[in-house]
Target: Alpha-ketoglutarate-dependent taurine dioxygenase
Amino acid sequence: MNEVLTRFERKAPVGSDLPALITPSMPGESLLDAQRRLRSDIESMVSTVGGVLLRGFDVPSVEDFRAFAAGFGHPLLSYDFGSTPRTEVGGGVYTTTEYPAHQSIPLHNEQAYTRMWPMKAWFHCVTPAAEGGETPIADSRAIYRRMPAAIRDRFAPGIIYVRNFGDFDVPWQKVFNTESRDEVEAFCRKAAIRWEWKPDGDLRTTQLCQAVETHPVTGELVWFNQAHLFHISNLQPEVRESLEELLGIENVPRNTYFADGSPIPDAMLDDVRAVLDAETVSFLWEKGDVTMLDNMLIAHARSPFKGPRKVVVAMAEPHDNLDKF
Model:
């Protein structure tokens, strides 16, 4: 299977096998042509290692990537109740988060801030950045094991996410893909989200979600939340100070709390971020690369970059824990 020599350098913690590397059987082999013979190997590696990198294959278009992702038997999902700005490329393929190039995006599992999420995520590098722009990954099982017991115990009852949509965050119309309040409320009822329409017409949502979850297939415990990303401590200090002064802590765009509603100390989330950093695996993208991740087993991130960069994403296989709380 791995007969074509391919460059692959990575930074990883000791003992990590991420990502499993799969390369063509011959130069110029089409990823779509190879899918039939590779599918069982890919699925096996994704279910054990957690993620694969397919490098060196011919992927001539985003449509070929879309067809490859869809070829695993599950319809590609729309990006509902999103937390970051993205653009739909078509057919269930989206740009990755459209934050400025100088910003990092911390490690996270896709939509772990909700109780409904995709089990699979694919990334495709159309144009690698001239410098940086990696999509670092990490094993959520290893993160859970490394996390200090006191933090695991404190997080175990769950995390409350509070979002205030408006001028300082993604508008609710974009997040819910509708202009209809009725449709927003119907989605919130389905997803176990509490909502409140504020006097100025903006929306506040509150949701209790998991912090630790059990993988439905492997039975393994995984660290599965975005408390560190949504918490106000994730902002630059000057931005945080300005927002708290302007809006008040209850109206900042997003924040997280313990399940009992009490604040999460900044220092505790610093410890969480240190664990995430320790488990990070990073490698430079090459043009045409495709990764397939089990979204519960593997978290992902984005490094700052220079120059043009285009990485697209597709998601599939919905899962939820709506009966948990």
